[in-house]
Amino acid sequence: MEPIDILLVEDDPVEVLLAREAFEDFKLRNHVVALGDGRAALAYLNRTGPYRDVRLPGLILLDLNLPGLDGRELLERLAADPVLAAIPVVVLTSSLAERDILRARRLRVTDYMIKPVDFHRIVDVVRHVEQLGFAVLRTAATG
Per its UniProt entry, which superkingdom is the organism in (predicted)? Predict the structure, then answer.
């Protein structure tokens, strides 16, 4: 089975670099697509414009504080779309605001991580999501 693609929606280039380095350090073979704003992420996920031929990611790592369409609004749009709502989302943020945490829970976010991010936890999430994908494929193939 091929590793899942990961969509990292983060506007801070340093955070993107840290994420890429962490994936290399942990020897993850996942293809990481990094986009710096919510509008580009939505176009990517809807496979419109320059993203017409992309494969949907198996996991979204999402910063809440983005320019333009912020992560909170993007979460709402993901939750409203039955196909996109099935993609696990891990929120990466500096926000400790209770309203953000409660909203994320309401929208069934897989995990909520406060920056600086513990990449050990992200690696665990990636591995868990991949195992779920394997289990789904295996069940479909045997059932």
Answer: Bacteria
Give per-residue pLDDT as tens, 33-76.
999 999 999 999 999 999 999 999 999 999 988 998 999 999 99
Domain count, the chain: 1
| Contact between 27 and 2 (Cβ < 8 Å) | no
C-alpha–C-alpha distance, residues 109 and 71, integer Å: 12
34 located within any domain: yes
DSSP code of residue 9: E
Residue 32, domain extent: 6-142
Percentages of the chain per state (helix, strand, coil), in multiples of 5: 50, 15, 35
